[in-house]
Write a structure and sequence with these properties.
The complex is a heterodimer of chains A (276) and B (319). Chain A is an alpha/beta fold. Chain A has helices at 25-43, 95-107, 124-133, 152-169, 200-214, 218-223, 225-232, 239-247, and strands spanning 5-12, 48-58, 62-65, 71-75, 86-90, 112-115, 140-147, 172-178, 254-262, 265-272. Chain A has one domain: Protocatechuate 4,5-dioxygenase, Chain B (3-Layer(aba) Sandwich), CATH 3.40.830.10. Chain A has 8 helices and 10 strands. Chain B is an alpha/beta fold. Chains A and B meet through strand 2 of A and loops of B.
Chain lengths: 276, 319
């Protein structure tokens, strides 16, 4: 097992509504909680943020962002008509850690690909998380895609290899997974004040999972992952939590800073690690 | 900005004023194509618009598209190609691209090593807007997408390039409010309503239209790829179950048993995780009135294990 220095971890939503100029109460609270978690993670002085966003989903192998400085504007293909649908990004990538992580992934028998292309579209979730967790974009990022055709335990192994690679190259890391909980979306244009969790059953499942995380039972969540995914249409079938478990960054009790709806989906801000 | 919703106004349309579309009895859908979009097919062709280079591959499907191109230009001669694509994923409602001249470079996030494509085409904005209006009238959530900053996705580019690499026919592109990967809620019933709305818009605007349903069939596939992506030694159906169900669907299509096909589609989706779950095929056949005419299967083969067929329904010939 790797002995990488992990300063903390977080689960945050990737929907851009948390950046809205006129947010719903839950969007505002979630955004504030993300800022708070960002401060906590930065207080641990990590060298790099190990990141997985379910909105960068892929289907062949595991792609690692290898561009040293992704920079541009992403126009979200669904939310383009809102103020939060145009997202600027400009952040540094820890190329050395990424290369080692990809090498470790290949060495473990999985397929890894370095992704280094100008104009590569950075996904909404990655940008939203960066804007709130690290507003000045000072922290370097090491990011892998979310392969939706790979089993969840493969993502767990990829997470573990992030810690192995960080240990090998001597990085202090924070781990961030960007994912929603239940993914039942309200299928019409709403005003912010109309937002609510789409389905009461989804809400119950989300709360049950958050309670388990708060109790330090991520393993228990993973045991129920498939049932949860089925019952609550969970974002990417809960692969982000599997990845998080693999890193070893979420072994203890979590603090659930906020939970609420974003356009019907379940969203939560959860932190693992020392509080200030 | 209306604070109640947080929406911002759409980009201003600076096009010269065009006369309002008048009803025209010439307006009709002359043909429909099942037009799968794997980026591998563009990559294999090495067109000038695409940056990566290949040594070929997937020829059976590409030859099928060559035949479709000939028929499109020589037989159908459409005013417009309307495409419904599953990788313009919209979480809320059906969106129609109303940008007059979409252009840019589409680096595909799933297959960036295969598709980095420069696109530049003309939208039939009057028809696009008419489809939104008709869909809204039918009770669907429908939106005009007027933001030129939205990247055109690979399923739209794939089907349109493969049918018409010259891009010299105006286009209308529709999003998928349902997709195999993500927030998948909308059902096929909505796609059928969208198809009917598309037909009414075509008739109302007097267009001679060809439809393109940008879908693969069976959709289980490998989660890794060979070192050489076009190494055809690795290309075969994911398993025999997937293949057999694709053949059952294609037999119904070839026999023109379209009413049976309509009820078979949900079963095929259930059995094969088919990409037609995204609704493109149901949208197209609904727009064509579920015609009891044989579909001409121009080619079938797999791409990374998924089933793909190029099929033509010629509404004129069987009229």
């Amino acid at each position: 097992m790797a002995e990488a220095t992990i300063v903390g971890a977080a689960l945050v939503p990737g929907m851009p509504h948390v950046l809205a100029d006129a947010p719903a109460p839950s969007w505002k609270a979630l955004g504030a909680a993300m800022r708070e978690v960002g401060q906590r993670l930065r207080a641990g002085a990590p060298d790099v943020v190990v990141l997985l966003s379910t909105q960068w989903f892929t289907v062949l192998g595991h792609q690692f962002q290898h561009h040293p400085n992704p920079r541009g504007t992403y126009v979200d293909e669904n939310w383009y008509a809102y103020d939060y649908g145009h997202l600027d990004y400009d952040y540094p990538v820890d190329v050395g850690l990424v290369e080692r992580w990809a090498t470790e992934t290949e060495r473990d028998g999985m397929q890894a690909r370095l992704t280094r292309y100008d104009d590569f579209p950075i996904d909404t979730g990655t940008i939203v998380a960066g804007r709130l967790l690290d507003p000045d974009a000072r922290l370097r990022v090491a990011q892998v895609s979310c392969n939706l055709y790979a089993p969840a335990d493969a993502l767990e192994r990829v997470g573990a290899l992030a810690a192995v690679a960080a240990d090998a190259v001597g990085r202090r890391i924070a781990v961030v997974v960007v994912s929603g909980l239940s993914a039942g979306l309200i299928q019409r244009w709403i005003t912010p004040g109309e937002d609510h969790i789409l389905d009461a059953g989804h809400d119950r499942w989300n709360r049950r999972v958050l309670d388990l995380l708060a109790a330090g039972d991520l393993a228990g969540v993973l045991e129920q992952r498939e049932a949860y995914a089925q019952a609550a249409s969970v974002d990417s079938q809960g692969r982000a939590l599997a990845f998080l478990a693999g890193t070893g960054a979420a072994g203890g009790r979590a603090e659930v800073l906020e939970y609420g709806p974003i356009w019907g989906t379940g969203a939560a801000v959860v932190h693992w690690g020392p509080s200030p | 900005m209306p604070a109640a919703t947080g929406r911002v106004s759409a980009a201003t349309d600076t096009r010269p004023a065009r006369p309002a579309a008048a009803p025209d009895t010439r307006g009709r859908i002359v043909a429909g194509y099942l037009a799968p979009h794997p980026p591998h097919l563009i990559y294999a062709e090495n067109p000038p618009q695409n940056e990566p280079r290949s040594t070929g591959g997937w020829e059976i499907l590409r030859w099928a598209y060559e035949e479709a191109r000939t028929r499109l230009k020589e037989r159908h001669r459409p005013d417009v190609i309307i495409v419904h694509a599953p990788h313009w994923i919209t979480m809320v409602g059906h969106h129609v691209n109303c940008v007059p001249k979409p252009s840019g470079r589409s680096v595909e996030p799933i297959f960036p090593h295969l598709l980095r494509y420069r696109y530049d085409f003309e939208t039939d904005v009057d028809l696009a807007e008419a489809i939104v209006d008709e869909a809204s009238s039918a009770g669907l959530v429908a939106s005009r997408m007027t933001d030129p900053g939205v990247r055109v996705d690979y399923a739209t580019i794939g089907a349109l390039h493969l049918l018409n690499p010259a891009w010299d026919i105006p286009v209308v592109s529709l999003s998928a409010n349902n997709n195999p990967y993500y927030y998948a809620e909308a059902g096929l019933e909505d796609m059928e309503l969208l198809g009917e709305a598309t037909r009414r818009a075509v008739e109302r605007t007097g267009r001679r239209a060809v439809l393109a349903a940008s879908n693969s069939l069976s959709h289980l596939h490998w989660d890794t790829e060979p070192e050489l992506p076009e190494d055809m030694a690795h290309e075969h159906p994911y398993n025999n179950h997937q293949y057999q169900w694709d053949m059952r669907l294609l037999e119904l299509i070839r026999a023109g048993r379209t009413r049976e096909l309509r009820s078979f589609i949900p079963e095929h989706i259930e059995q094969t995780a088919a990409e037609i779950k995204a609704g493109s095929l149901s949208w197209m056949l609904s727009a064509m009135g579920w015609p009891e005419i044989p579909g001409d299967v121009l080619g079938y083969w797999t791409v990374i294990g998924t089933g793909n067929a190029v099929v033509e329904w010629d509404a004129q010939r069987h009229g």
